[in-house]
Design goal:
- By secondary structure, this protein is α/β, with parallel strands linked by helices.
- It has two domains: 222 residues, P-loop containing nucleotide triphosphate hydrolases (Rossmann fold, 3-Layer(aba) Sandwich), CATH 3.40.50.300; 67 residues, Alpha-Beta Plaits.
- It is 35% helix and 26% strand.
- The protein has eleven helices and 13 strands.
- Strands 5-6-7-3-8-9 form a six-stranded mixed β-sheet, sandwiched between helices. Strands 11-12-10-13 form a four-stranded antiparallel β-sheet, covered by helices on one side. A three-stranded antiparallel β-sheet has the order 2-1-4, with helices on one face.
- Helix 3 crosses helix 4 and helix 4 packs across helix 5.
- The chain is elongated, with a radius of gyration of 24 Å.
Length: 318
């Protein structure tokens, strides 16, 4: 089924992909709206498989995929609307940055004038104009990342699929690239990003998709994803003047599963299975005891902590 609404979405319906007997993804159902969507998961979780499926580089073993209403097995229709920045480098030998982009656009059938214009524009967008006439083989890792991004955007696609695009960028280039993602998302494009830089993923994403072992374990805005795991303990940091006394009082409650003094000795890290009850209790304890509470804040309302709640593992490997 297609129509005005589905033609603005990327959809997966019961999609599975197997590599022989090895699972890539299994029974994935997704609806991805415009904006910035981040794919989060450890190596082997299915992020790249998901990206390769939506760009038509591989076919699903079963299931249905639509990218703005177009099946990915129609490359002549999909190509003009999708730009892909792969995780790994694969450049033709000897080409300069300018030649790399220009030849890509020529293959698409554009005129010489349009190719030149789009090449210059893409190079300028990623701040690679000064290096345009240098061989790509002599580029640094960060420069290779930027020229791949330039290739992905040169034909002005509506869907950008970017596999680890921030990897290897210095802090300034990373900030500039994130600003581009936000600009494209605000224009109503789809920006699909996978990244290990979790605090940046958390900051820039309109939607997060968490994957584990080929399955989607949660999706949505990060606050909404966090609400999906309310039965899991939530960690809260309380800064106060007498943390030991407060910890002893709070730990008597059945919904408090852990309470420990913060390493700096100036607060409590507490885990509760019922945040609402906890906040009511804390208000009462403060009124009764006169404790001076400096601050109370969730210590884990981010992608990394939500991911660890859902599937475990070290955040650094995500």
């Amino acid at each position: 089924m297609s129509g005005p609404l589905t033609n603005r979405l990327i959809t997966f319906g019961e999609v599975s992909r197997f590599y022989g007997e090895v699972l890539g993804i299994n029974r994935v159902n997704l609806t991805i709206p415009p904006g910035i969507t981040s794919l989060v998961g450890p190596n082997g979780s299915g992020k790249t498989t998901l990206m390769n499926l939506m760009t038509g580089l591989i076919r699903p073993t079963r299931g249905d995929i639509r990218v703005l209403g177009i099946p990915p097995d129609r490359p002549e229709e999909l190509g003009p609307i999708v730009g892909y920045c792969a995780q790994f480098d694969n450049f033709p030998k000897g080409l300069t940055g300018y030649q790399f982009l220009h030849s890509f656009l020529r293959i698409r059938g554009m005129s010489e004038v349009e190719c030149a214009e789009r090449t210059r524009s893409a190079l300028d967008t990623v701040n690679m104009t000064d290096a345009a006439q240098r061989p790509v083989g002599a580029y640094s890792k960060g420069m290779r990342q930027r020229i791949k991004l330039a290739q992905a955007i040169a034909h002005d696609p509506q869907v950008l699929v970017l596999d680890e695009p921030l990897n290897g960028l210095d802090p300034m280039a990373r900030a500039e690239t994130i600003a581009l993602f936000q600009q494209w998302g605000a224009q109503g494009r789809h920006v699909i990003v996978s990244s290990h830089i979790l605090h940046e993923v958390d900051r820039i994403s309109d939607q997060v998709i968490l994957l584990s072992h080929g399955y989607v374990v949660a999706e949505g805005e990060i606050q909404g994803v966090r609400s999906e795991v309310k039965d899991q303990p939530m960690q809260i940091l309380i800064r106060c003047d007498h943390p030991n006394a407060l910890a002893a009082r709070l730990f008597q409650q059945d919904h408090v599963v852990e309470a420990k003094i913060h390493p700096d000795g100036k607060g409590i890290l507490l885990r509760t299975t019922d945040a609402d009850r906890f906040y009511l209790l804390l208000n009462r304890v403060v009124l009764e005891t006169g404790l001076d509470v400096e601050s109370v804040a969730p210590a884990d309302d981010d992608v990394n902590s939500v991911y660890q709640y859902l599937i475990g593992g070290e955040g650094g490997t995500v």
